[in-house]
Amino acid sequence: MGGDERLRLFLALQLPDDTVRGIAEWQQQELRGRIVPAGNLHVTLAFLGSRPAAELDSICGVLEEEAAAAASPQLADARYRETRTVGMLAFSDATGNGAVLAARLHERLLALGVYEPEPRAWLPHVTVLRYRERPGLSPAPPELPVVTPSDAAAFVSRLHPSGAVYEVLESFPLNRQELNR
User: Fold this and answer.
1) Spatial contact of 7 and 48, defined as CB atoms under 8 Å apart
2) SS3 letters across the chain
3) Residues 38-92: tens digit of each pLDDT
4) d(C-alpha 101, C-alpha 174), whole Å
5) If both were cysteines, with which of 78, 90, 101, 166 could 125 make a disulfide (CB 3.0 to 4.6 Å apart)?
């Protein structure tokens, strides 16, 4: 990637394979409309938007450092909710570790000049459905065990007529200090 190329970037927690399978099965049974593909399921930490490719190294450096220092989040109590444009599974952040990681990332990315903070508090969620008109669904959420992501990743989002395709550019393990003990 050239330094002048612009990339649509976001940072996210990657979900364990069994969680992705569980959500994907639930989506097929309970939802209708533009279901988010299993390969696109994640928990966004920070959406950066269109950024010059030359910034990627510094963004990934911050993500690597903060992921290494972060205790793994424990996401529980999934509940389905709809916003103006998406259906999501919202989670409680049982330990608060996800919120701490998100806040530290937001602070450091803001200092780098690559992030515009959201006006609302970070909410751990997985977007599972997209729509133009709210479908008004109220399915029971999937029965998931506590979700413990083990990695944080920098993703590029490439827009296509059929929908966005996400690609992991770099992935970093969470809580590396604990792993090295």
Assistant:
1) no
2) CCCCCEEEEEEEEECCHHHHHHHHHHHHHHCCCEECCHHHCCEEEEEEEEEEHHHHHHHHHHHHHHHHHCCCCCEEEEEEEECCCEEEEEEEECCCHHHHHHHHHHHHHHHHCCCCCCCCCCCCEEEEEECCCCCCCCCCCCCCCCECCCEEEEEEEEEECCEEEEEEEEEEECCHHHHCC
3) 999 999 999 999 999 999 999 999 999 999 999 999 999 999 999 999 999 999 9
4) 10
5) 90
Structure tokens at 32: 């209708």
Which residues, 6+ apart, have CB-to-CB distance to 43 below 8 Å? 12, 13, 15, 75, 91, 98, 124, 125, 126, 149
